[in-house]
Design brief:
Radius of gyration of chain A: 14 Å
Mean pLDDT of chain A: 93
Order of helices and strands of chain A: EEEEEEEEEEEE
Shape of chain A: globular
Structural class of chain B: mainly beta
Helix content of chain B: under 10%
Radius of gyration of chain B: 13 Å
Strand content of chain B: over 45%
Largest sheet of chain A: 6 strands, mixed
Shape of chain B: globular
Low-confidence stretches of chain B: none
Number of helices of chain A: 0
Oligomer: heterodimer
Chain lengths: ~120, ~110
């Protein structure tokens, strides 16, 4: 069975500082990994994905994430946070080796960037 | 490109009633998935439709059913509503199985 853990309910960072939002996963086969962002009363917006290849993936709005197979992690990072980055962030995993596209999400991490 | 659209935006029902939610996928996408997001939780997979058939189902009771039409749009039906069914219902569409799912804005269902 697939699962995702986001160990921090909230991450606080000052504007201009680097940010990291943590994610670890469990999947029986090989993973597809995704990060989504959710603003209040909105649906999920895709940020980036790891499918295969380079372990460092770059996405929208200056975000990036590093796939670490040995640690089964896929942490989201940004070199310089903006106040507008404040939102709810979800990590999700899919089993690459099945034909299904079911996404399993973590419980989410609220990012709060202070001016 | 309109992206994924959902209707209605908000819905209020009472216990025991039935509800139908609608979703139109992003242009070019043939697969539609439905998720339930309870307050303060991550989205939970309900089921997925492809070629008008339910292809995969999550841990939801039979009160939750769906349909996909030839134009790839989809409906989610929930019978005998319970208070615990109150949530944001998200529809997502996708094409190539390697690619990400695109989410709609959701339908907020409140059961009183």
């Amino acid at each position: 069975a697939q699962s995702v853990a986001q160990p921090e309910d909230q991450v606080n960072v000052a504007e201009g500082n680097p940010l990291t939002v943590k994610c670890t996963y469990s999947v029986s086969g090989n993973p597809y990994l995704f990060w989504y962002v959710q603003y209040p009363n909105r649906g999920l917006q895709f940020l980036l994905k790891y499918i295969t290849g380079d372990n460092l993936v770059k996405g929208s709005y200056g975000f990036e994430a590093e796939f670490n197979k040995s640690q089964t992690s896929f942490h989201l990072k940004k070199p310089s946070a903006l106040v507008s980055d404040s939102a709810l962030y979800f990590c999700a995993v899919r089993d690459r080796d099945t034909g299904f596209q079911k996404l399993v999400f973590g419980t989410g991490t609220r990012l709060l960037v202070s001016p | 490109d309109a992206g994924v659209t959902q209707s209605p935006t908000h819905l209020i029902k009472t216990r025991g009633q039935q509800v139908t939610l609608r979703c139109s996928p992003k242009s070019g996408h043939d697969t539609v998935s439905w998720y339930q997001q309870a307050l303060g939780q991550g989205p939970q997979f309900i089921f997925q439709y492809y070629e008008e058939e339910e292809r995969q189902r999550g841990n939801f009771p039979d009160r939750f059913s769906g349909h996909q039409f030839p134009n790839y749009s989809s409906e989610l039906n929930v019978n005998a509503l319970l208070l615990g069914d109150s949530a944001l219902y998200l529809c997502a569409s996708s094409g190539d199985r390697r690619n990400e799912q695109f989410f709609g804005p959701g339908t907020r269902l409140t059961v009183l």
